Amino acid sequence: MFIHLHCHSHYSLLDGLPKIPDLVKKAKSLGMTSLALTDHGVMYGMIEFYKACKKEGIKPILGVEAYVAPRRLTDKEVGVDTKSYHLVLLAKNEIGYKNLLKLTSIAHLDGFYYKPRIDKEILKQHSEGLIGLSACLNGEISRHLMGNNLETAERSLYEYKQIFGVESFYLEVQPQTAKDNNQQEIVNKRLIELARK
User: Fold this and answer.
1) What is the rounded distance in angstroms from the CA atom of residue 192 to the CA atom of residue 30?
2) What global pTM score does this model have?
């Protein structure tokens, strides 16, 4: 059975289009029993999403696609700290949900620099109850793989496995789209090789 674990609503400004009730109804019509909501850097739609899922008999998976600062979340240097990495975070339980709330609050209050950002140190402090996914082509591991920095990608993978635990971090393989110029296909192959290793 297929379940979307990386899904955006209209709360992902300039990236997501569907409104939450439409998103949930579409998942129901496709026979899905669960659905995640992982809007970019925000959790504005979580209560609406939770209620809509419960109404349709779908298990809601609460999450966020976080922006991870390349250095510390307090570093705000033009041209360096604007290039944050994406990382999908999913709550396993109530502790994980509370940690998502903490992380998104810190991202907005302390780490905001063009976008609400966290860093790995804050993530380590609030990783209990969370599952991490390596995200899209803007994820840290994928970016290293696109740049042929295989050793750096492997170090990043190891670091995330240390943060989340071996059973709670996954490499995300996505379908190729016309706009990615075959980059996704290349990254997918390298992600699979990295996973096997």
Assistant:
1) 28
2) 0.95
